[in-house]
Write a structure and sequence with these properties.
The chain is α/β, with parallel strands linked by helices. Helices cover 46% and strands 14% of the residues. The chain is elongated.
Length: 321
């Protein structure tokens, strides 16, 4: 294939890794396939010259390009989330997307794409911390918070920061095949396909106290002793409600049924235990309130995307002999 032109619009407040991560992946791929078949990466801006990233690193941009674009890659960062709908970035993206073979966002680069109307009616992802904001600000976008990256036709979106490398590897695999993508992954010392989703990196889910006293009391019971018997009949009895009424009011107040809420709380407790204490998985399961290590494993796979022992190996804070 001929040289692919990758255009990256940059702006003050851009996240540096959203730019440099994919840049390095594409440049490494070019070193394997040769410049005639590789990637030409250009950083562009409305005003050519230095651009200051959110971390203070300065990047140098050239002017906005004319002509056809192979890959339009929009990075994230504070500047992306705050980009006005009538500003140069969103306005330029509308026209540039029509000239592009594919349009890609990294992290919160999904925000200007959504503001330009390019994600309407599509499934998209972004950094887990800002997924709710993206969905609330742009209700026409179907936001999936846990994906590392998503493809919807020629539109690709990725999770936060380093997930831009995962996305770049996927693009390289489409363009040059799995062997080249694997070579790039080895060179960068990263997974070709990262196991699990964003849930394994996100912080514990916190739900504000319910306004209804009985449901708030049930929350306090759950958080106060996650290892206790927290079945619906027990909780309903402790707060003086019938099972059906309790389940209905709990779901209405907190957005999830009691059983789902209890499982999420227990998963969060187990995550903290596995991160901070040298426990066996069976011990963590008992302390977190799971009936067995197997039930905890199934809950982790549902909510975190990886098994507890894999999670512990990646995120433990303690040394083990």
């Amino acid at each position: 294939m001929p040289t692919s032109r990758v255009i990256v619009p940059v702006f003050d407040g851009v996240q540096s890794l959203d730019v440099t991560g994919p840049h390095e992946a594409f440049a490494t791929a070019t070193s394997f396939v040769g410049t005639a078949d590789g990637y030409e990466i250009r950083l562009v801006s409305a005003v050519p010259g230095p651009v200051t990233t959110s971390s203070g690193l300065q990047l140098v941009a050239e002017g906005l390009p004319e002509g056809e674009i192979d890959t339009l890659l929009v990075p994230g960062g504070r500047g992306a989330r705050q980009a006005p709908a009538d500003g140069w970035l969103v306005t330029w993206l509308r026209g540039a997307a029509e000239r592009s073979r594919r349009v890609v966002s990294v992290c919160t680069g999904a925000f200007p794409l959504a503001a330009a109307g390019l994600l309407d009616g599509l499934c998209a992802t972004t950094h887990w911390r800002h997924a709710d904001e993206l969905g609330a600000t742009h209700p026409a976008v179907d936001v999936t918070a846990d994906a590392i990256y998503l493809r919807q036709g020629r539109i690709w979106t990725s999770a936060g920061v380093t997930a831009g490398i995962d996305l770049a590897l996927a693009l390289i695999e489409v363009d040059h095949g799995p062997e080249v993508a694997q070579d790039v992954a080895r060179e960068l010392v990263v997974f070709l396909r990262r196991p699990g989703g964003q849930s394994q990196f996100a912080g514990p889910v916190w739900a504000p106290p319910a306004r209804q006293p009985s449901i708030k009391a049930a929350q306090e019971i759950i958080h106060g002793d996650p290892a206790a018997d927290l079945r619906v009949p027990v909780l309903a009895s402790r707060v003086g409600m019938s099972e059906r009424h309790f389940s209905r009011e709990f779901t209405k107040a907190l957005g999830s049924p009691p059983g789902d809420y209890v499982e999420q709380v227990r998963v969060d407790v187990a995550r903290r235990l596995l991160e901070s204490e040298p426990l066996l998985v069976t011990a963590a399961a008992t302390r977190a309130g799971f009936g067995s290590a197997e039930s905890m494993r199934k809950a982790f796979l549902r909510r975190v995307g990886v098994a507890p022992d894999h999670y512990r190996r990646r995120f433990t804070l303690t040394e083990r002999t």
